[in-house]
Write a structure and sequence with these properties.
298 residues, alpha+beta
C-alpha cells in the first residue's frame, strides 16, 4: 500500500492555498493509496512532519508552500536513514528549486503535470548543523536582503531582493575573508560571497550556468571589489552567468569548506532567510534525496 504525506503552509499563495490544496490532494489520491494532509502553524512544523514521515517509512513527502516550507521539508528528511521521495508544489515568491528542477511555477500546472515516474537525484547542502537546498549568501548585499520586508517580498517578488541590494550598494563595505576550500586555504577581500547548489539564485536563472542539482558540487563566486566602482563593474558578469573566474569575479567549485571573516561580525542569508553568523562550515551531500522533477527540455 503506497502512502504520501502532503505538508501545506496555509499562509503561502494568499487566499489561493486552500484551492490548491484541494487540487493537490485530488491529484495525489490518483497516484497513491492513501494521502495524509498536515498544515503548518509555526516555524519548524514542516521539519517535524517530514521527519515523522521518514521514520514511518511513508513512500513520498510533498510540500506546498514557498522556499522556506520546501527547505524545512528537505531538512526534516535529510538526517534520516530512510528518506522518502520528495516533491513539492511552489507557492512562494522566488521558487529557486522549482526553477532548477524545471517544474512549472504555476501551482495548478505543477499539480496537473506531476509525474511520479519522473525522478531525479538532488544534492543537499549542509551548513553547520542545518540543511539548505539552494544558496548561501554572505556580505553587505546579503545582509540587506535579510532586512527585506515581508510585504515588499509579496508586492515586488524577486525584485524586492534586487531593490534592497541596490539601495545598499552605495554604502558597500568589503570584508577580509578566510576560506578553506577542499583543504586549500586562501584569503580574499570582497563585499559579497554567493554559494549555490543549483543554477537559479534569487529567481535569476543561470547565475551558475553550469550548475546541476546532482553534480555533487557547491559553486562559490565572490566579487573582487574593494570599491563601489569595482562592485558596479562586476554586475555585467553576474547577469550573463558565471562559469569561471574573471577580472571582476572569483569562481570555484568545491565539496566542503569553511568561511570566516577577520575582525568583524557577519551573518549569512540561507535560502532567503537569515542564517548563522560566520564562521561556518559548508558541504554538499551528493544525491541525498530523490525528487520528482519537471519535463526535460529538448
Amino acid at each position: 500500500m503506497t502512502k504520501a504525506l502532503l505538508i501545506v503552509n496555509p499562509s503561502s499563495g494568499g487566499e489561493e492555498a486552500e484551492k490548491y490544496e484541494e487540487q493537490a490532494t485530488e491529484k495525489l489520491n490518483t497516484l497513491f493509496d492513501e494521502v495524509i494532509v498536515k498544515h503548518t502553524e509555526k516555524a519548524g512544523d514542516a521539519i517535524d512532519f517530514a521527519k515523522e514521515a521518514a521514520q514511518a517509512k511513508i513512500n513520498s513527502v510533498f510540500a506546498m508552500g514557498g522556499d522556506g516550507t520546501v527547505n524545512e521539508a528537505i531538512s526534516g528528511l535529510a538526517e534520516e536513514s530512510y528518506r522518502p521521495n520528495f516533491g513539492f508544489f511552489p507557492l512562494g515568491t522566488v521558487n529557486d528549486l522549482a526553477r532548477a528542477l524545471n517544474l512549472p511555477l504555476d501551482p495548478e500546472e505543477a499539480i496537473s503535470k506531476l509525474d511520479i515516474t519522473r525522478t531525479k537525484s538532488l544534492d543537499v547542502g549542509k551548513l553547520n548543523d542545518q540543511y539548505f537546498m539552494n544558496v548561501v549568501a554572505i556580505g553587505t548585499i546579503p545582509e540587506s536582503i535579510n532586512d527585506v520586508d515581508v510585504e515588499d517580498k509579496t508586492k515586488f517578488g524577486k525584485l524586492a531582493y534586487f531593490i534592497s541590494g541596490i539601495k545598499n550598494v552605495i554604502g558597500t563595505e568589503s570584508y577580509d575573508f578566510e576560506l578553506t576550500i577542499d583543504g586549500e586555504s586562501q584569503e580574499i577581500t570582497s563585499t559579497t560571497l554567493i554559494i549555490g547548489s543549483t543554477n537559479s539564485v534569487g529567481g535569476f536563472e543561470q547565475l551558475f550556468s553550469d550548475a546541476q542539482v546532482d553534480d555533487g558540487k557547491m559553486h562559490l563566486l565572490y566579487l573582487k571589489d574593494e570599491s563601489l566602482l569595482e562592485t558596479v563593474k562586476s554586475l555585467p558578469d553576474l547577469l550573463t552567468g558565471v562559469k569561471e573566474s574573471t577580472d571582476n569575479l572569483g569562481y570555484v567549485t568545491f565539496e566542503k569548506g569553511t568561511i570566516a571573516v577577520k575582525e568583524k561580525t557577519l551573518g549569512t542569508n540561507v535560502d532567503g532567510d537569515e542564517g548563522p553568523e560566520l564562521p561556518i562550515t559548508i558541504e554538499i551531500l551528493p544525491a541525498h534525496l530523490t525528487v520528482y522533477a519537471g519535463e526535460v527540455n529538448d
